[in-house]
């Protein structure tokens, strides 16, 4: 009989195999993770809502399927933490905001439906920056999440709850969303794996919108293979999403099982380095470059000059789309309603509700976006940012003519202390410096662990970027790098994390 501690340390592939063979039951696995949540989440605060009864019911259904002799899927019975931005029928969905506190959606997002169809056990909903606006999970209306490596530091954002749940062994898998790096950046600072699929590769139906041309859901895991298994479960065309790509899902699981870089040309992005980057981050990145060379990749320096403009373009495009998307939260149909005492107009009730319900960062971005879209400024700001977006896309296209993938550090620094950048939005925005270009261009990208920074002993992430619809290249390269690092270290990086 496998002990509780052993059960929570298994990979998703290992967990599913043990359930399918009958060595353990899905209920036992689920109970082990619920017990872990009860033991440590008061300190970590990864979850906003734990659906204990729902998770156990899903687990019993998996065990019943096995008892009837039905074939189980590759992730059947594996516990998962779901970012609180996807609607889940009968389960609260708050998007980290007081504006939607207690809201119970009447329907499932497409991604939620696909998880359930794959017999994945949804443990609950994870903490996040309000409406996915942030880089640290400090902007949640329900308080910050701690990084399991050091609870006084941020776990990344906006999906810090999902990354922290993985790093603290409260869930085997997790789901995040990536608008400017919110899957990859949390993965980097917690020593986990996070993937932003090609834009349109995973349905956005039922995902509360922040910036519609940038938002993308994707897998979070502790290994590259686990991320690939989850990626395949949630990806694919959805007629309910007008941006969904009607094309076969790349063979990501096969790529993850057969990772190698022999004969691949790997581009090192010149613009991602230098001033502003922590010395230990660059040290681990340079070691990763040499490791790739050792295992058979050809290393090529690539210049993408428009990448220097990505941060500025993003912080015009994303707030503009946020300003438009969040106009629907008017206190008339659902969510928080303040001041409706019969003496005020609908406009006054809307204003009072939005004032009380939105946090500072959401208000800041709505104001920025409204200004950028206003008459007389549209062309100067939003229009110019879209032109820069085109230049960034062209830089990627030119780079991929000569290399198969690009690499860079995922973040310029390791996890910073909670509160350190709370009063400095510009310093906070710089956390996404390396990740934003891929969102603007819509291509695929991954972060995986590449060691600990010598200054502070905290995880560093390696970013791998592939062309649109070439997501399998991420997993091919990621699996090879992961295996080489494990061979060098003798274990997975997370095994060095302090025990909670």
From TrEMBL:
From which domain of life does this come?
Answer: Bacteria
Which species? Answer: Streptomyces zagrosensis
Q: What does this protein do?
A: Allows the formation of correctly charged Gln-tRNA(Gln) through the transamidation of misacylated Glu-tRNA(Gln) in organisms which lack glutaminyl-tRNA synthetase. The reaction takes place in the presence of glutamine and ATP through an activated gamma-phospho-Glu-tRNA(Gln).
Q: What is this protein called?
A: Glutamyl-tRNA(Gln) amidotransferase subunit A
**Gene (name only):** gatA
* Record: active site: 83, 158, 182
Q: Which reaction does it catalyse?
A: L-glutamyl-tRNA(Gln) + L-glutamine + ATP + H2O = L-glutaminyl-tRNA(Gln) + L-glutamate + ADP + phosphate + H(+)
Q: Outline the subunit composition.
A: Heterotrimer of A, B and C subunits.
Spell out the PROSITE patterns in the cross-references: AMIDASES
